[in-house]
Amino acid sequence: MLGFLKEPVVVTAKINVSLVALTVMGLISRLWGLCYPRAVVFDEVYYGQFVSLYMKRIFFVDDSGPPFGHMLLALGGYLGGFDGNFLWNRIGAEYSMNVPVWSLRLLPALAGALCVPLAYQILAELHFSHCAALGAALLILLENSLITQSRFMLLESILIFFILLAVLSYLKFYNLQKHSAFSGSWWFWLLLTGVACSCAVGVKYMGLFTYMLLLATAGLHFWHMIGDQNLSNVSLLCHFLARGLALIIIPMGLYLSFFYVHLALLYRSGPHDQIMTSAFQASLEGGLARITQGQPLEVAYGSQITLRNILGKPMQCWLHSHTNTYPIRYENGRGSSHQQQVTCYPFKDVNNWWIVKDPGMQQLVVSNPPRPVRHGHVVQLVHGITTRYLNTHDVAAPLSPHSQEVSCYIDYNISMPAQNLWRVEIVNRDSDTDVWKTILSEVRFVHVNTSAVLKASGLSGASLPEWGYRQLEVVGEKLSKGYHQSMVWNVEEHRYGKSQEQKEREVELHSPTQMDISKNLSFMAKFTELQWKILTLKNEDTEHKYSSSALDWITMDTNIAYWLHPTSGAQIHLLGNVATWASANAAALVYLCLSLWYLLRRRRKIYDIPEDAWQLWMSAGGICAGGWAVNYLPFFLMEKTLFLYHYLPAVTFQILLIPVVLQHLGDHLCRSVLLKSMFSALIVAWFSSVYFVYCTFSPVTYGQPALPLTELKALRWKDTWNILIRKQ
């Protein structure tokens, strides 16, 4: 029974020494002097704010993308014991001693270092030679721009790592397809492909480009499988379901999990939650939750409420009125109703309170038991302080003459009767009998007489003049096709009114209410709202000193100064290896021309290269040239401020294309021994130039040593480069 113990247990392993050496060199190149400079470098000023908010568990919204990349940066801070106390307000600011600089920069640096062995393995899985794979890895190793971007608290190196990991995993899965389908390793690499794609998208939405490329590649490969008569229908169905599970279902679930962790970590109210709905804000600890905790859930006749417009941008505001009236005549000569002003006020105020009244009854208190208001019910809204009714009529609004003026009705004993009936329409209802609920219900108020919809028009235009205290205009929108968020309101603060007398009611309006009814949002509701905000909330793009166009990237006519030492003149720039980038452009052009030439010749039944070489050429181009195209061309369609670092995922794929083209030229176009020898010599000379450029620009890649003025000027190889020269 224990016979196996008589012999020693022997474990044998194959170790690729080249791969180990490349990994070590990658780690050295990215981790060496990682704490230098101990100052805020370029976009660290941006991402550092989010790291601090994670440490303090304060909610935020970043419109640049999903939260996974931010969480990885925050993980570095957590592992380093960062307490979040640092003011991220200026590039170049010295880090205080409580900031673990090395820990914060560690994960991006590790991701950048691991891109080197990943490049080697991708070329090997594409069935290129060891020399080609080694060349690809060395080009990534010596690429100045990738080194710079991976040594700081930035996201691009993490994004590129997951992109390359997804490509490598898919290639390994595909290569196991013929001989080891549904084996353990087959499942591992297929699942890892989906996980890596989800992580790439979770870091930045740019990861979608490579994800779509791999989905298209998988679809093409499955299409070819359908034509394989050796595979049964059941086998094809299993292959289809496996790919659907691993490449679609699991990535979607993992993407949701990023937001789940993000929302679980950030449970405290902060400055960013004001753009969220009242329901979302009330789910956070502090802030609005302090006010709304324990409010009645169902709005009833007699309820005292505040109504917040759900658009929330450019600022949040509440339906408001005060004793002042509209001027008899506006500055442009148009007349008004001279009724009491109704506005949308961007601050909490006692004049934001309204009472929901049953038109058939006079009481302004909640009955016992309360009578809830439902979808389709007609109500009157009484202003809590002035007791005047919300009204609209066929009078032009002050700033929007094509819309109706909204006011609180004053009876001047003239031929303008009150029109103060409003129909409650719950936009997000589940059925036509839904009850109007505090915070959760999104409601439109439709004027019964004119069918106009209550709208905060001031959120998309100018504010009222001095007579309206610069508050935001509220109108009755007569032409309403569908609905806009500026027409939708929700109850934010709510109490059941108990005082029929006005003086007692005013005291009541100033005091908080306490009733214990929970209004917690589900995770999916919070995810949907946060995802929509990320996709639609865009900061105003302003011209930046180092912004550039997509055309500038190919020829590297631009750079970015990341950091400048305040005294020595040492500096760090995002600059690519000129020799590598020029070679990558040439390789892409050669690949395109050769592919077109081969296709034309093959159309004429002329086959210049063997079929297996043609398949290798096309598959490598689909990954490398395709990866470059899908990560580069979409930027021509984007209306956003662009920077050179946006090109780094694309140029990484383009660099991988260089050894593909070189090996193809050496194997199929250099037929004689002499030509092969000359070609090899040219490759050595070219690679020496790549290393020379790397060494030349290393001082502005690593920020040290500080160069004298003459050497800094000598680094300005292009007039468009902004090398910082201090005036003597």
Automatic annotation (TrEMBL):
Name one cellular component (GO) term.
endoplasmic reticulum membrane
Spell out where the chain crosses the membrane: 12-32, 68-88, 100-120, 126-142, 154-174, 186-203, 208-226, 246-267, 578-600, 612-630, 642-662, 674-694
Q: Which residues form a coiled coil?
A: none
Q: In which pathway does it act?
A: Protein modification; protein glycosylation
Q: Which SUPFAM superfamilies match?
A: MIR domain
Cross-referenced Pfam families: MIR, PMT, PMT_4TMC
Catalysed reactions, semicolon-separated? a di-trans,poly-cis-dolichyl beta-D-mannosyl phosphate + L-seryl-[protein] = 3-O-(alpha-D-mannosyl)-L-seryl-[protein] + a di-trans,poly-cis-dolichyl phosphate + H(+); a di-trans,poly-cis-dolichyl beta-D-mannosyl phosphate + L-threonyl-[protein] = 3-O-(alpha-D-mannosyl)-L-threonyl-[protein] + a di-trans,poly-cis-dolichyl phosphate + H(+)
Q: Which domain of life is it from?
A: Eukaryota
EC assignment: 2.4.1.109
Q: Indicate whether Hydrolase appears among the record's keywords.
A: no
Give GO terms: molecular function aspect only.
dolichyl-phosphate-mannose-protein mannosyltransferase activity
Q: Which PANTHER family match?
A: DOLICHYL-PHOSPHATE-MANNOSE--PROTEIN MANNOSYLTRANSFERASE, PROTEIN O-MANNOSYL-TRANSFERASE 1
* Family that this chain belongs to: Belongs to the glycosyltransferase 39 family.
User: Which protein, by its recorded name, is this?
Assistant: Protein O-mannosyl-transferase 1
The organism named in the record is Tichodroma muraria
Q: Lineage in the entry?
A: Eukaryota, Metazoa, Chordata, Craniata, Vertebrata
Gene name linked to the record: Pomt1
